[in-house]
Amino acid sequence: MAIKTIKGITWNHSRAFPPLVAVSQRYEELHPGVRIHWDKRTLDEFGHKPIDQLIHDFDLIVIDHPWAGFCFSRNIVCDQKKFLSTAQWNELDQSCVGASFKSYVFDDRLLAIPIDMATPVPSWRPDLMEKNELQLPRTWEELIALADKKFVVMPGFGADLFLNWLMLLHALDARPFANAETIAEKEKAIEAALLLKRLAEPMPKEITNWNPIVIAELMTRQDSFAYCPFAYSYGNYARPSFVNKPLQYGNLIQLNGKPLRSILGGTGIAISSGCKEKELAFDFSLYCAGEAVQSQIYTYAGGQPVRKEAWQSEALTTFTGGFFRDSYLSHENALVRPRYDGYVPLQEKAGVPLQQFILGEISNDRLWEMIEGCYRESNGDCHKCPTGRTNRHE
After folding, report:
1. Which positions ≥6 away from 175 have C-beta within 8 Å?
2. Is the whole-model pTM more than 0.85?
3. Residue 220 in contact with residue 237, Cβ under 8 Å?
4. Residue % of the chain over a pLDDT of 70
5. CA-to-CA distance for 387 and 68, rounded, in angstroms?
6. What's 51's DSSP letter?
7. Is the predicted pLDDT of residue 387 greater than 70, yes or no?
């Protein structure tokens, strides 16, 4: 029997690698003659290393939606819309949490089949909150009061700061990415940065080296921090089977009387344009995204599924320490990031002046000047966008 082999790459975490290996093992058992091998890279490489460096070595690429413009303008990945029937398209659209499926639809093409859902949400250590007689904050003012007691931490990694800054821009009605000339209204952009700076003041400067995984590991291994207001969700850390001191997750606090809406993360499986077994690759991706797999093998192996059926499963709510139930609303309401060709490097580059700003190293005006410069640089590839549109959410 001739063996068909496909290779995939994801990122290095228990939420990412083990579930795909587990699903692949079962797929191989159901399809004799098929072999699926997975590799992994760091979280930062996943978010920012150009995809064109992977297409010669991998058939399946676990990807997030902001890569759409970059990938399609260079024909790096296959348009998976051509593989889907209308019924399959509608089923995925209706079954994925929030904007997960829609985030991969770009210029009437489909970047990836979504398999994973995440967005920044609050997390806390219930035992430490109770021990120190702390109340969960409901408003920004209550959050600052809790932070001043030195119990609060947040990721200060550049990309995370930038995306949480975007969250605050939306909350302040600053209209980020409304046009190609300026990233947002200057006064509100500075106001959003000042909110982050004030929140970071009582925190150790080391947060600028900490991404969401580091935050979750610190909170579940040590007793230094009791609450994180927003970091990309890793529900594994709420599972009693995964950590000795589990976190509890919830929904976002209010700013100016309105609940915050964070910036959508999650992942999907893209198919490299160089894949020689495209139909097989697509069939596996669709299998991985199916209700039965998402609600069983994928989640029990450590995954954070994208399907509503999994998030609303009573059995999985118990297994995940209430993560699905307690944070569902914020995941459902998360906002889609821009996807124009040139956007992805902006997350990393514009995060640097935000780091300098919260550390008190640069002024308001210098922050604005540097972020605007990064934004103009990201727009240098605007003409390569398939649609040529000026709305930077595309």
Report:
1. 169, 184, 185
2. yes
3. yes
4. 96
5. 12
6. G
7. no
Residue environment code for 22-45, b if the CB has 16+ CB neighbours within 10 A, otherwise e: bbbebbeeeeeebebebebeebee
Residue with tokens 């990201």: 378
Letter string b/e over residues 215-241, b meaning 16 or more CB atoms within 10 A of that residue's CB: bbebbbeeeebbbbbbbbbbbbbbbee
**How far apart, in Å, are the Cα atoms of 288 and each of 67, 141, 159, 284, 292?**
21, 42, 28, 6, 9
CB neighbourhood size of 391 (10 A): 13
Q: Cβ-count burial of 309 within 10 angstroms (0-12 exposed, 13-18 middle, 19+ buried)? A: middle
Q: Strands 267-271 and 60-63: what pairing?
A: antiparallel
Check pLDDT > 50 for residue 389.
no
- The pLDDT tens digits for 274-301 are 999 999 999 999 999 999 999 999 999 9
Query: Dihedral sign, CA of 242, 248, 252, 255?
Result: negative
Using a 10 angstrom Cβ sphere, with 0-12 exposed, 13-18 middle and 19 or more buried, the burial of residue 322 is middle
User: What CA dihedral angle connects 163, 168, 169 and 170, to 10 degrees?
Assistant: 100
